[in-house]
Amino acid sequence: MTQLQVQAQPLAHLTIGQLVVQRPARARVFEKFGLDYCCGGKKPLDEACAAKGIDLQQVLVALEIVDAVAGTDIRDWSTAPLGELAQHIEVTHHAYLKRELPRLDYLTNRVAQRHGEHQPNLIQLRNVFAALKIEMDQHMAKEEDILFPLCRELDGDAPATESHCGSIRNPITVMLKEHDDAGAALEEMRRLTDNYTPPENACNTFRAMYDSLAQLERDMHQHVHKENNILFPRAIAAEAARNQL
């Protein structure tokens, strides 16, 4: 067995989410191979590759290369205070969505109106996106008004205050379900756009829409990963530890 095989073998049995928590730069590898590290992050790498017919060894080699060249400028959010991580998600990913979703709302509507008669997939795309936008607007409001304040409270030393939510597990369960729904919408949009590949004769607005939707997917994967695989489990653990005091 080569040194690579000795080093990489344990990686194959870790979940994709764990691998990205350890080294965030690995997300680029999973994006390249189409492996979901946010909503599907609980699957072990070898199982995820087998399910999609992807050569596990190619993924492991790519991971080794990324690990070797990745810089240290990417923040390790697995050890950051919960309040700081919640704030990062809010000012980075929520701010991006609040800026980009209205822009994409306009683009998807415009392209569907102009080209949907001859390309019905664009009307379907518009409908999927419109539903996703409504859901994400509501989702972000619930996180900012309910869940993130609870996470910030868990950072402090003061006794927990009464919450109408009961355990923090309750809002987290709702957020996880909504993340799954958003992930399904992203997959459907990728299918409807043939992996965001515009036709050769596509106009600039058409191309801008596809490029922006692809960027939306990338940011959403990072966003959901930080919540599903880092913030939520740590918040549940922090609440459990506080309840034992």
What does this structure look like?
- There is one protein chain.
- This protein is mainly alpha-helical.
- The protein has two domains: 3-69, SP0561-like (Orthogonal Bundle); 82-243, no CATH class.
- The chain is built from nine helices and no strands.
- α8 (169-192) runs antiparallel to α9.
- 29% of the residues are buried.
- Mean pLDDT is 87; it is low at 1-8.
Secondary-structure-derived class: mainly alpha
Helix content: over 70%
What are the secondary-structure elements, in order, as H or E?
HHHHHHHHH
Uncertain segments: 1-8
Number of strands: 0
Q: Can you count the helices?
A: 9
User: Span between N and C termini?
Assistant: 49 Å
Mean pLDDT: 87
Instruction: Give the total of domains.
Output: 2
Percent strand: under 5%
Largest sheet: none
Please compute the radius of gyration using only Cα atoms.
Answer: 20 Å
Shape: globular
Summary of the model, kept short:
This protein has 245 residues and is mainly α. 74% of the residues lie in helices and 0% in strands.
Topology:
Elements: H1 3-13, H2 16-22, H3 27-33, H4 45-52, H5 56-69, H6 82-115, H7 120-155, H8 169-192, H9 204-243
Helix pairs in contact: 1-5, 2-9, 3-5, 6-7, 6-9, 7-8, 8-9
